[in-house]
Amino acid sequence: MNKSMRQQINEYIIGFSLCVLLTGAAFTVGMLYKDVGLDGATVAVIVLTCLALLQFVIQSVYFLHLDHEIGPKWRLASFFSMISVLLIIVVGSLWIMYNLNYNMMPEMLDDEQTQMLENPDEFIIKDELINP
Amino acid sequence: MKTSTVTPVSARNDNSQLGLWLYLMTDCILFAALFATYAVLLVGVADGPGPAEIFEPWFVLTQTGILLLSTLFAGISLVAASFMKRQLTVIMLVLTGIMGLLFISMELFEFQKLISEGFTWQTSAFLSAFFTLVATHGLHIFFGLIWLGVLLYRISKQGLTEKTIGHIKLFTMFWHFLDVVWIFIFTFVYMMGIIQ
Q1: Distance in Å, alpha carbon of A3 to nearest chain B alpha carbon
Q2: What is the CA radius of gyration of chain A?
Q3: Is the separation of the CB atoms in B55 and B154 below 8 Å?
Q4: Residue B177: exposed, middle, or buried by beta-carbon count in 10 A (0-12, 13-18, 19+)?
Q5: Which residue in B13, B83, B32, B40 sits closest to A87, CA to CA?
Q6: CA distance B140 to B44
Q7: B20 in A contact zone (CB under 8 Å)
Q8: B55 CB near a chain A CB, below 8 Å?
Q9: Considering the domain boundaries, does residue B138 fall inside one?
Q10: Least CB-CB distance to B191: which of A27, A86, A92?
Q11: ipTM of the complex, rounded to two decimals
Q12: What is the pTM of this model?
């Protein structure tokens, strides 16, 4: 806290400049890979994710001052428990839903199931067969 | 001999800062749920448009720049307040508010444009998730602006006291948090959206 006002403002300006650079970089990557399709742009997705995480760290340090907390580190502790819940929600949802979609793909079906999909009429149990 | 049982303002400020921080952490979890929903429903475009067709990269970049500037002004206002520079504090807070208003106006303009083209939150699962996620962030900005208005009123009435400085600290925490959420909206919604 014994930094001068000028120094403290400069720290904010440094943080801001870094964020502008990272946003610009993310934007450039986005524009370069525009309309490529996410499947063909794995590198771009990884780079974008890294840039976002880096900017997240920079803002946490320069703006939210998560790095110098005085006394017991309650904020840091709750921050990490939040991250763990966040990961469970996001990774868990994507994992489950991806598996669900994967198991619904046509190539996963066996022959009988494919036939059922193609000619559903033949497989519908008619009422008159059960109750003649 | 009398002992005071009144908690000093600085200790109360510390408590409210931790309280706000805990609220922000739970808010992160809210946004995590919305992001997860968005990621799952991204492919559910029905007959509506996909992300690449409706996002305008330069428009979003401008929005991002404006929000970043506003978070910078908010940060400077806190520094100015801790050095009792009342005029600079107020100027910076007003600038923060102007940038916030600009940001939210641009967002409303984007929504209005989409809706006028017939792409509403009822069009597809993707658009439902998109509107919910982005508008939730916008709603936070909106309430932040109301908070900022109240804060400026209190500063004009009470000046920079330990109490009002504490409030500025709380407000800037909230405002920086909203910018942090926006990084992820910018990256995962808009930038990955235009790639797809």
Answers
A1: 10
A2: 27
A3: no
A4: buried
A5: B32
A6: 27
A7: no
A8: no
A9: yes
A10: A27
A11: 0.86
A12: 0.84
Cβ atoms A33, A41 nearer than 8 A: yes
Q: How many structural domains does chain B have?
A: 1
Tell me, what CATH number does B93's domain have?
Answer: 1.20.120.80
Determine the structural domain holding residue B106 and report its residue range. Answer: 56-195
Q: Is the dihedral of CA B133, B137, B138, B139 positive or negative?
A: positive
Q: What is the pLDDT of residue A122?
A: 65
Does the residue B125 lie in any domain? Answer: yes
pLDDT tens, position by position, B70-118 = 999 999 999 999 999 999 999 999 999 999 999 999 999 999 999 999 8
What is the per-residue pLDDT across A8-37, written as a single tens digit (0 to 9) for each? 999 999 999 999 999 999 999 999 888 877
Neighbours of A1 (CB within 10 A): 6
B40, part of any domain: no
Q: Which of residues 115-174 of B touch A (CB under 8 A)?
A: 173
Chain A from 8 to 67: CB within 8 A of any B CB: 8-9, 12-13, 15-16, 19-20, 23, 26-27, 29-31, 33-38, 41, 44-45, 48-49, 51-52, 55-56, 59-60, 63-64
Residue in B33, B79, B173 closest to A12 by CB: B79
Question: Is residue B106 included in any domain, yes or no?
Answer: yes
What is d(CA B100, CA A42) in angstroms, rounded to the nearest whole number?
34
Give yes or no for B30 touching A (CB within 8 A).
no
Tokens standing for residue B85: 């520079």
Residue A38 has pLDDT above 80, yes or no: no
Tens-place pLDDT, residues A72-101? 788 889 999 999 999 999 999 989 888 887
